Amino acid sequence: MRVGVVTFPGSLDDSSALRAIRLAGGSAVPLFHSSDDLQEVDAVVLPGGFSYGDYLRCGAISRFAPIMRSIIVAAEHGFPVLGICNGFQILCESHLLPGALTRNEGLHFICRDQAVIVENVKTLWTRGYNQGDRIVIPIKNGEGSYQANPETLRELESEGRIVLRYADGNPNGSQNNIAGISNKRGNVVGVMPHPEQAIETLTGPSSDGLIFFSSILQELVGR
Amino acid sequence: MAQEPSLPVTRVKAVNSVGGKTLDTVATATAEPDTPQPWRELGLKEDEYLRIKEILGRRPTSSELAMYSVMWSEHCSYKSSKVHLKQFGEKAPHSDALLVGIGENAGVVDIGQGYAVTFKIESHNHPSFVEPYQGAATGVGGIVRDILTMGARPIAIMDPLRFGLADAPDTKRVLPGVVAGIGGYGNCLGLPNIGGEIVFDETYAGNPLVNALCVGVMRHEDIKLATAHGTGNLVVLFGAKTGGDGIGGVSVLASETFASGKATKRPAVQVGDPFAEKVLIECSLEIFAEDLVIGIQDLGGAGLSCATSELASAGSGGMSITLEKVPLRDPSLTPEEILMSESQERMCAIIEPAKLGRFMAICKKWEVTATVIGEVTDGDRLQITHNGHVIVDVPPRTVAHDGPVYQRPIAEPDYLATLSAAVVPQVESAEEIAAAILTLVAAPNIADKSWVTDQYDRYVQGNSVLAQPEDSGMIRIDEESHLGVAISTDANARWSYLDPYNGAKLALLESCRNIATTGAKPLAVTNCLNFGSPENPGVMWQFAETVRGLADICLEMALPVTGGNVSFYNQTGAVAILPTPIIGVLGVIEDVRTRTKMGFPRPELEIFQLGNTDDNFSGSEYAYLHGQLGNQAPTPDVPAEMRLIALLLEAQGCFESAHDISNGGLAAALAESVLRNNIGATIELPAQYIPGGVTAGLFAETPGRILISVDPADVEQLNALCVAHDVPMHRIGSTGGDALIVNGAIIDIPTLRDAHTKTFAGLFA
User: Fold this and answer.
1) Taking residues B121-133, what's their average pLDDT?
2) Predicted local distance difference test score (pLDDT) of residue B314
3) Residue A173 in contact with residue A101, Cβ under 8 Å?
4) How far is CA A106 from CA A69, B126, B184, B718, in A?
5) C-alpha to C-alpha distance for B65 and B390, rounded to whole angstroms
């Protein structure tokens, strides 16, 4: 199974996402922003980082990359997409996911081992978890405060589209403690915490994040 | 008189004027030898100016004067420190590990399996006081480019920091800005920040120290050097466009020499663009991977002047530069300003013409501006032209390497005679012990630094095995073989103040101990020597003693010094900073999975102290909290320290945790080991081991001690190893429970955590 990871100028966690896919047993395919060729990957990860230096707004420039044109079209037809941190921001800017990520409450960059609850295990990326699992994965961002209008929040809540919710306190002022959401169909997921940095206890706070990657691989194998 | 005959006179005037004034060419300099020049304002001494005239056989042009003034500055030429630093060469131990030594952008050591590692610390102290955010940010940017320039992928950074008193109003301005700058730049580059230190002392008020360390890794065959050779090879400038930022002395020159009609002017502090640097890193690594460059140099201090003169003098010497080809952010820059600009995120490469196409294609892929600005020439002159006029014609070596060398006066400072022993209160009752521990762990120098380190990304790249507050930072190099490196930086400036010779040795020993505590073998040393004014004989004595101590201990321990940096003039008025030699040690670990962490991992382990405690509080945090400094730094017992390091490496399998006992003594180490995983400990200090009783046992900072926890099943084996290595081993307690209990003083973990963690948020949030 081939899972692509897009490198934009300023992407930082692309190598870690590629490693996570490999460790989960997949074939990791590096993709570059300037081509619209998805190289026949079965799913794609938009990694963390500061694409285009977060200039203008986080993700606001990357959403116009040639590769995003292909990803947006494919995603609307059920193609699996996971956006992590800056990738989540790009998905919001692309309108594949609703809402926006704004400056953290307190205005500091925060790097911390964060407990989150997995609330939606129906998405293509979280099927390997059990409903209500408490996992610890790092957050590391300056603009991770999830904001949406009341209508959107009601919709996300009523449709069960909150994928991850912060436990033990809200680190950044996100509405409803939201750490990750999905689209209606469940193929597009955006999360602020970094599952790709929690795939082995040697280098992360846990290996809890690996299930994001094994979930999609099992899903793809089953197709 | 030399002419530019190809151009009619009117044309010359048109292209040859900047800000309404005529360009100072070599021809003008020859024709008008008596033009007054602002050498003094540029920081040159009269004999230095005369020496430049002697080298050139005429007065320098304003561009040449600018180049010499910057390159002969203390910062670039090491003119006060050179006579001392040569000891690192004279006393260098034999080392098979050293692949590239002092003199290049950074030293390179062999860590086995075909990997080479390069690491270096630099200071960005003065800019960080003027403009904390940008000063600290560009400090990170500069050291990262030094590492990149060696051909290495940067893999981690660390920041040893010093500030004035924690509750001083200016510290509230400087510290948050510095921390945000380091985070803002380093996080955006994707480099894990895995360690460093924060220390407060009143002498750093007005002179904060912002040192930045970077480590990078490459294969042996990929090492790059800063050299220009091969006539006809091209000089290519790539990265950001050149702007007016970071022009220090030249703004003086400009105001002296040129019209005052231009806006005044230029921040002397550079402004960083970490995104540009991130792209430059990826672009450069791709260029290196295809072996497209002959030599490479980053543009840091002294900008293009430094890069061109260093590249040329490290090669055959000849180079011609066409200055108007340099892409500018600000088209009004004068040639002198272009030469001096310290705009960030720029590199200069020497490329064979046949490889230019591929080089340019990679730059285009990463949207990096790249421009051919000159070529390597026959002969031994660096010639720079601007619109056809020769404005620089110098032997590059005289700019880059033949700067003045001073034997500054040295005198043992008077303060040494006025020191007296530290007299500190003794703790006896349980209440006194508990109160003293809680006060200590809340003191700014000991308190938890998460408020700072949580603003740095320690996870990015996915290879961080250990990061602060662990004893050393550790990075995995190879996922298959599990090879890794560990880095630690240390200094105890109070000991250096009391005894700079031994202070330097103690700093190196502590750094080595931190490396070995985590399970890595110390391999090589770098340093950043921060001092007051070299024109003060007392400061110069501190410096000379520090270098002597460091060179001696490196020889004794067979550790090569791979490079370093000197920062002088950290002084406000008559008050110099404490002499602060920051020593960085790099270690190698064959299998990072075997590393040892600092926190007690579980209950029912036995707790030991390795090494003995002396009844000396000089330079300790406990004495400092009671307004005392003391008079006598510890005398390092190097053979004992080397035995301890050998034991630490051999006995790793016996340790459930290991933590160096240093700042704050055993009390601080215990609190940190307890709080890491919320595992309590019950300690009973055996009086017979500790000449100074419980107070010294808890708060003295005797070097050469480690706090360990051991599974009862491994105690016998550890004991045998300690006997074999002649390392004292004292059982002081056991793990378990939800409190730190010391000689009957009970401190529950939440109380201990509150005391330890609330200080920074209270001061700076």
Assistant:
1) 91
2) 86
3) no
4) 35, 28, 15, 48
5) 14
Q: What is the rounded distance in angstroms from the CA atom of residue B179 to the CA atom of residue B159?
A: 9
pLDDT in tens, B372-413: 999 999 989 999 999 999 999 999 999 988 889 999 999 999
Once rounded to an integer, what is the mean pLDDT over residues B712-723?
Answer: 97
Residues of B with CB under 8 A from a CB of A: 180, 183-184, 187-190, 273-276, 278-279, 365-367, 453-465, 476, 479, 592-593, 765
Q: Which residues of A180-201 are buried (b: 16+ CB within 10 A; e: fewer)?
A: bbbbeebbbbbbbbbbbbbbbe
Task: Give me the residue from A53, A108, A110 closest to B188, CB to CB.
Answer: A53
- Report d(CA B431, CA B440) in Å as an integer: 14
For residue A55, the chain B residues in CB contact (below 8 A) are: 275
**Mean pLDDT over each residue of chain B, to the nearest integer:** 90
Which among B586, B712, B710 is positioned nearest to B651, based on CA atoms?
Answer: B710
DSSP B641-687: HHHHHHHHHHTGGGEEEEEE--TTHHHHHHHHHHHHHT--EEE---G
pLDDT in tens, B561-614: 998 899 999 998 888 999 999 999 999 999 999 999 999 999 999 999 999 999
Place of tokens 């990061």: B467
Question: Taking CB atoms and an 8 Å cutoff, what residues of chain B touch A106?
Answer: 765
Q: Determine the residue among B459, B468, B478 to mutate to test chain A binding: the one whose Cβ has the most chain A Cβ atoms within 10 Å.
A: B459
CB contact under 8 A, B464 and A203: yes
Query: Nearest-CA neighbor of B184 among B453, B456, B449?
Result: B456
Q: For residues B738 and B337, what is the distance between their CA atoms, to the nearest angstrom?
A: 63
Secondary structure of B362-377 in HEC code, one letter for each residue:
HHHHCCCCEEEEEEEC
- Taken in order of first residue, the domains within chain B and their CATH numbers are 107-221+415-764 (3.30.1330.10), 224-405 (3.90.650.10)
Q: What is the mean pLDDT of chain A?
A: 95
Cβ–Cβ gap A55/B275 under 8 Å? yes
Please give the DSSP secondary-structure letter assigned to residue B259: -
CB–CB of B275 and A15 under 8 A? no
Look at the block and give the residue holding tokens 């180079």: B319
pLDDT level of residue B268 (50, 70, 90 thresholds): low
Q: Is A93 a catalytic residue?
A: no
Amino acid B324 reads: E
pLDDT of residue B21: 54
What is the predicted pLDDT for the residue at B4? 31
Would you call B461 and A19 a contact, using CB atoms and an 8 Å cutoff? no
- Structure tokens of B661? 């006992």
CB contact burial B135-174 (16+ within 10 A = b; e otherwise)? bbbbbbbbbbbbbbbbbbbbbbbbbbbbbbebebeebeeb
Residues of chain B positioned with their CB less than 8 A from the CB of A49: 190
B477 — pLDDT class (breaks 50, 70, 90): very high
Contact check, Cβ <8 Å, B187/A53: no
pTM of the model: 0.93
Enumerate the domain spans of chain A.
Answer: 2-221
Instruction: Respond yes or no: is residue A85 known to be catalytic.
Output: yes
What ipTM describes this predicted complex? 0.95
Fold of A2-221: Rossmann fold (3.40.50)
Q: What does the alpha-carbon distance between residue A113 and residue B179 come to, in Å, rounded to a whole number?
A: 20
Per CB-CB distance under 8 Å, the chain B contacts of A140 are 187, 457, 459-460
By C-alpha distance, which of B234, B506, B481, B259 is closest to B374?
B234
B415-434 pLDDT, tens digit per residue, is 999 999 999 999 989 999 99
Residue of B182, B453, B457 to mutate when probing chain A, most A C-beta within 10 A: B457
Question: What pLDDT is attached to residue B267?
Answer: 55
Q: Is A196 a catalytic residue?
A: yes
Judge: A12–B190 Cβ closer than 8 Å, yes or no.
Answer: yes
